[in-house]
Amino acid sequence: MKAFALFAMLFASVGVCAKEFVAEPAPNPTAIVVVDQSALRASPRESAQQQAVLWQGDSLEVRGRKMDYLQVYDHRRERAGYVRATQVRVLGLQAQDAPNLFAVVRFLRDTPGAEALGIGYAAAYLRAAPGKDIGAEAFDALGSMAERLARRASSNRSKANDAIIAAHLEVVAGYGVAMRSLERDGRVQVCYDGEAFRRVMALPADAEQKARAALALTREDCIDPATTLVERANLDVWRADVLDRAPRTDLPEYLKNRLRMRSAAVWSSLAFERVRRGEPAAEAGSRALQELTAVNRQELAEDDSSAYSDAAVRVGAVRWAVESPPLKASTGLAIVTESGQPGETCIKLVDAKHDAKSPLSQRCTWGTVWANSARANAQGTALALAVQPLDGWREMWVFHRGADGWTIDVVPPAGDAPEIGYVEFAGWVPGGKKLLAAREVRSGGRFSRSFEVLDLDTLAVDKRADKPDSLSQFYRWQDPVWKGQTVSLR
Predict the structure, then answer these.
(1) First-residue to last-residue Cα distance in the chain
(2) In this structure, are strands 405-411 and 420-429 parallel, antiparallel, or unpaired?
(3) Fewest CB within a 10 Å sphere: which of 157, 390, 394, 437?
(4) CA angle (227, 230, 236) in 5-degree steps
(5) Is 68 exposed, middle or buried (0-12, 13-18, 19+ CB in 10 A)?
(6) Are 443 and 458 in contact (CB under 8 A)?
(7) Which own/partner pairs from 184-192 qualify as long-range (CB within 8 Å, at least 24 positions apart)?
(8) What is the pTM of this model?
(9) What was the pLDDT predicted at 228?
């Protein structure tokens, strides 16, 4: 049985269903358009009326020939006409033609701008080849071209290319290649639905094919922003499973790095989701940290620097899932947590004289409170605490005593609509007036990392540098526990 029967939607453009094709071959040959903006004309002459504009990858039924024109029928547009023979290639769709068709697929799979044409040839190959001869490579090529076309559509900044890309998307849609459009940050993200890559994961395939498929199926930027928390949690479990099924042996180091970075990001999300549900998160957090530290930075591709920073920020946000509670401060200053409304956690600041019934200060939050992150200064006048309201977003809460009593201030990673980030306590400066902090954030698609000295009264930044050694106070007074645990010093 032809593999075409398994992938029937790919051949909708030829107007034949899978059952009909298997039972009775198409009586007329098929041609594929190889030149963009080819004209489908009413008669075989250049001056004839134009019936339609054809694009690379369009499939046509050949019904005859007149001079240097082919008489064709376009099933997708339901139009008949004539097209120059030099602008199309007539394809053989018998089993003996499959090797030649696949040779063209291999040539086009990595050719930018020829994705629609390559997908058309892939469809022809799947139609021609016997099912027993079709392996994962064909679907790997099909998926790679579909994903590259989606990326081109998402990153296109030229109005001159708009019509070409839109036409190519319509062509591949005629073969059953589904694309999803997601609105994200005020722009449209086009994503391939991944059907071909799912077949690669299900078929016997080599390590590189499995790795490419796993990476394509687990892209963070192709998750619908409207996904609910429950759906996202289930999706992350599935993403982790897909990544675990990709072999890490017999791979180039740069591909291993990509799998490690993606796994680190996914497991950090799972750690946050588990602790938010009140489940043990140490295993997921530890896996995220292990994957990040396994990245070989000497073999990190230039294009992967952003992915590495993204993974590091996400892991940094949940690193307290695997950290031990600190030693109790000599001042006795500490926090205790209690349940508030459903899903809410109330934080109470206590010391030797004030217990949870009469706390020094208290505040409730819907976020995740990393109670083991609490750090008090030697004077007993301030305490820093990590609170994470969202996946990939961790704040620092500072409890500090002033002339009017205790105040609780929230220090966010950034204030200009960032995407992900964290800010964390890095040490106390003697005297009880200064606080050290480290922060990483992605805003507008760009990452920044800084080490800062904050004024404890106002929490304004006194000094900032991109390296801790550039600040004398930071270099001298950074907390040794923080230095040994943070991912900001990677």
Answers:
(1) 54
(2) unpaired
(3) 157
(4) 80
(5) exposed
(6) no
(7) 184/221, 184/225, 185/419, 188/154, 189/154, 189/221, 189/222, 190/150, 190/151, 190/153, 190/154, 191/150, 191/154, 191/219, 191/221, 191/222, 192/143, 192/146, 192/147, 192/149, 192/150, 192/216
(8) 0.88
(9) 92
| Contact assessment for residue 123 and residue 11, using Cβ atoms and an 8 Å cutoff | yes
- The encoded tokens of residue 15 equal 């107007």
d(CA 375, CA 371): 10
Write out the DSSP string of 217-273: HT-GGGS-TT--HHHHHHHHHHHHHHHHTS--SS--HHHHHHHHHHHHHHHHHHHHH
> Which amino acid, 39?
A
Q: What is the DSSP letter of 302?
A: G
Residue 183, pLDDT score:
87
Instruction: Evaluate if residue 260 carries a pLDDT over 70.
Output: yes
Strand partners, 234: none
CA-wise closest residue to 14 among 151, 107, 124, 129: 124
- Measured CA to CA, the distance from residue 382 to residue 165 in angstroms comes to 57
Q: Average per-residue pLDDT in the chain?
A: 90
In this structure, what token pair is assigned to residue 430? Answer: 């003697």
Q: Cα separation of 256 and 252, whole Å?
A: 7
Determine how many CB atoms are found less than 10 A away from the CB of residue 149.
26
| Average pLDDT of span 53-68 | 94
364: left (phi over 0), alpha (psi -120 to 50) or beta: beta
DSSP 3-state of 81: strand
Residue labelled with tokens 């230039």: 302
User: Tens digits of per-residue pLDDT, 65-90?
Assistant: 999 999 999 999 999 999 999 999 99
SS (H, E, C) 105-158: HHHHCCCCCCHHHHHHHHHHHHHHCEHHHCCHHHHHHHHHHHHHHHHHHHHCCC
pLDDT tens digits, one per residue of 272-318: 999 999 899 999 999 999 999 999 999 999 999 999 999 999 999 99
Tokens of 265: 């990001």
CA 317 to CA 411: how far, in whole Å? Answer: 14
DSSP 334-377: EEEEEE-STT-EEEEEE-SS--TTS-SEEEEESSEEEEEEEEE-
Question: 128-138: per-residue pLDDT in tens?
Answer: 999 999 999 99
